[in-house]
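[SOLVED] Need 3D model of a two-part complex

Original post:
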Amino acid sequence: MIQSLRGMNDILSNDYERFDYFIETATSIAKRYGFHYVETPLLEETALFKRSVGESSDIVGKEMYQFTDKGGNDVCLRPEGTAGVVRAFIQQKLDKKGGIHRFYYHGAMFRYERPQKGRLREFHQFGVESFGVDSVYEDALMIMMVADILKTLGIGYRLQLNSLGDQHCMPKYREDLISFIDACGDNICEDCQRRKSTNPIRVLDCKNEKCQHLYATAPKLINQLCGECENDFATLKQILDDHCIAYKIDTHLVRGLDYYSKTAFEFVSDNIGSQSAIAGGGRYDRLIEFLDGKPTPAVGFAIGIERLLELIVMPQPTRNGYYFGAMETESLALILKCAEKYRQTNKAVVEYEPKNLKNHLKGADRINARYCAVIGENERNTNCIWIKDLVEQKETIISLDTI
RNA sequence: GUGGGAUUAGCUCAGUUGGUUAGAGCACUGGUUUGUGGUGCCGGGGGUCACGGGUUCGAGCCCCGCAUCCCACCCCA
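Solution:
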């Protein structure tokens, strides 16, 4: 038997119902917030991710599905969604056009990792990207939108918040931090030694207990933000307070992708195992110019769909549509015609096997139909169809000429 | 990439120190005496015990390999 590749799943039946329900919910909310759909290719030039996500990140460093195509191009399956949307934004010259552009998207992402619960090699994200708004109100909008989606789906969460600073305060902080790490000498773990030169901010995120103990006294960016960053961060907290969105400042929250600055946030759940981040995002004002576009402020988030699916509280299924059945072979042709007519405006499912009424009712019940429509000898003789409303338990007989 | 656990029916799982024809519940399907469903009663189908080797008179059970899932590390959505 040929089976799907490791860490790559099929989505069908119940899973798909949840998947579809999520997409429908998230999409309608994104539209209400004024976002438009965008779809970008699954395959992109590898350089796009090296320059945006960053070569120091694990994603680019060791998790990409990268290969050379038949034309000799260095390409890879997208490991995340933002880079592609930014490339499209620049390629369509929307950066030069100016103004505000808000997009949402959903689709498959690929990372070559060791699979476990909530961590797949092919997984799906729903994300939004907003270009051209430098106001921190847009950052707050992102968080409110995620909170809105999660609330609508009945999902509980904790929100973690941090500010990563900008080009005015981050470089100075970075230097301070490197000096601090240098002072730690050989006491820090191997990973941190490596991070020190590639992306020193990431050491704060180290899970090593010994390192964490040392970093307790590390300089904190939150204490040396520049005026603008500090004001924005204060405003953001105020907006969230005003909207009753609870959060916790986590000074060690560092997004795994290099392009973030200023606002960084993560929504986590305690009910889905160790892969607990269900949504994450933040501001990335410098990314557009890194990718050769005209400098444009931007902010976005992404939700991990598979991680959310098991947390979704599905609404009560309601009966809908028609079940059609014939009681004897002679009535089947009539039933098929009726079903065809009803199908133009309703869900209509036909049972081809002639059965007695009791079994047809069972069948209608099984597929959760609202109406059970049957033609038997009596109806055939009078050119009628018998329809029972399974909720109201009311029966009607109507002439076939009137449907 | 490193370490550990698991894998028996569509699903959730039993299966004794290795011993006849591998079980249950749910699901599916049919009947319940001939036109009234969900929840009654009776029946039925369905398993290369993940896969490949080995030990043994005999393997679902023991040993080796391999695949997948799960857990931790790591990483992130």
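Edit: The longest helix of chain A spans residues 13-32.
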